[in-house]
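seq as requested:
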Amino acid sequence: MLSLRRMFVAGAIAIPLALGGAGTALADDYEAQESTAGPWGASSTYVAADTDNDYGHHHHGYRYNDNDSTFVETNSVAGPGGAMSEYVVAVADDDGGVAYFRGQDVAGDQGASSTRIRATAGY
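struct tokens:
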């Protein structure tokens, strides 16, 4: 009886493994957005990750196309003391090129500032 049970357990494990690994979750894109507002201000966050985006997209001075893997995150906050927005974009294309962009804009009663970072290789 014990060997029969072992055979069923082994079969239950072997079949999914032979078919490519049951329990493995794969997706070619992810997107999430969150926004909040209250008496002291508002905020918004957006995150997206994508592979093989066949739509073509333009973000912060770089156009990424088919077969690229991309990550985008943006954050915005506004309240009585000022406002801030920031973004991060990372791209790897199918030809070995990579790119990274980061920016931040801040404004308030003490002034304003803007920062941009852009790094690319293999283009």
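Helices lie at 2-18.
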